[in-house]
Design brief:
alpha+beta; 2 helices
Length: about 70
């Protein structure tokens, strides 16, 4: 049940972001046009595409983001 509650809250966060158009904090250290927002103990990485924001990853705040993100290269 906790996982469903978390997923529902996360979906609500995404919907609110879409409504108000928040793009997050730019994270040039992770790549061009990548932004991050914080949700509870998670970091959500976003990238603009056309007039939308694509969710790249939802990570736990204690993860080493640079190591995880560089594995995509």
């Amino acid at each position: 049940m906790a996982a469903r509650r978390f997923a529902s809250q996360l979906q609500g966060k995404f919907e609110r972001l879409a409504e108000i158009g928040v793009s997050g904090t730019r994270r040039l250290d992770l790549g061009d046009d990548i932004s991050a927002i914080v949700f509870r103990d998670r970091i959500i990485l976003l990238k603009p595409f056309d007039e939308r924001m694509h969710i790249l990853r939802v990570l736990h705040g204690r993860q080493n983001i640079h190591d995880l993100f560089s594995s995509d290269d």
